[in-house]
């Protein structure tokens, strides 16, 4: 019985909410749309079916009911609007870049080189893990693929060399490396716009709800300098707060050297992948000045990767993760746009303004960033968090803050998405993988999440105070 209730909870919540008395200020279409939207969010959190299917069901039901537009053709155009969104295809292309790193072996080689030269002591291994993540982050929007799929398989071999397992002396080295692995990827996910797929989704939702456009360069200009000190401190903070008992690791460089020998010399395809990554980064940073859209740049580089054989066309059409994310994000973008089209966002903004209008603008900005971060305790998906809360927080900010502050607050909200992944064992994609290694107990993970979450949140609030 409990299993069925859980499986059908999105439908139960949607129907139950729709049958409740309609709030004053909303049209029937807006209220029913909001009910379906809440049901979709619940579905994304619980996942009784795949997340992409949840989104498809949501837009289909809305379109059939004509809640966004009573005209069938207009309703269809709205339902499919997300698939024409440039950000969605940028995310898709970046997933293919991640595949290129994996298929060519370049990602593994970079990580092993860093361990070889930085891994003589445990703190050095921690920094090697962090730098490996940072080097891959600008080109891999899936932190799950980056951290759990590329970094974790390498790191998981290191504790075994010191006889540190989840059941035998986990604190010797395994627990420390596990925490550095997840903590560093959370920081790099906020450092670069293309380091976390929900960052790109957030940027698009911000543009829809407020008209504010955030480019790769604008993001990097603020977030890279702001996150760099936190990134450099993270392995050391973990070393101090959650220290390993094994301080030296002379075997790690030797092991990495042997693994590099097995890989052999750098292949032509690895060099090509490196060149394409640099080309993509260059176009993302300077493309605006050159008149090149970032999405078109990504598609161009992807095309070159296929034409040159770095990846094959079969790799593209068989990459289930990339296509799944494309459908998932496209439907969520459409649903988020419907919030504005049906009058839900203006209604929420009016209500929020009544409670916060007495606060000075700086306090409102800090409050919004604080609550946006803390609310992630209720989400097991950064994407669901972004879809549910970003439009709400942006419409609140638009109604309460001076126009010149809106772009800055928008960047602070979006920039915190990566950092909030540290707070729970389920807060971001790689968390269950690192937690599942067994080196850190659930109670200890929650405690460390609270400590590091407080540090990360504090850094965002300080940045907000000085930037906004």
UniProtKB/TrEMBL annotation:
GO MF annotations in UniProt: transmembrane transporter activity
Transmembrane listed as a keyword: yes
Predominant localisation class: membrane
Membrane topology, as annotated: Multi-pass membrane protein
Spans through the membrane: 30-46, 51-68, 80-101, 176-201, 222-242, 271-287, 294-313, 325-348, 360-379, 409-427, 447-467
Claim: 4Fe-4S is one of the keywords in the record: no
InterPro entries hit by this protein: CitT-rel, SLC13A/DASS
Domain of life: Bacteria
Localization of this protein: Membrane
Cellular component terms per the entry's GO annotation: membrane
UniProt KW keywords: Membrane, Transmembrane, Transmembrane helix
NCBIfam families listed in its UniProt record: dass
PANTHER family: DICARBOXYLATE TRANSPORTER 2.1, CHLOROPLASTIC
Family under the similarity heading: Belongs to the SLC13A/DASS transporter (TC 2.A.47) family. DIT1 subfamily.
Name of the protein this chain belongs to: L-tartrate/succinate antiporter
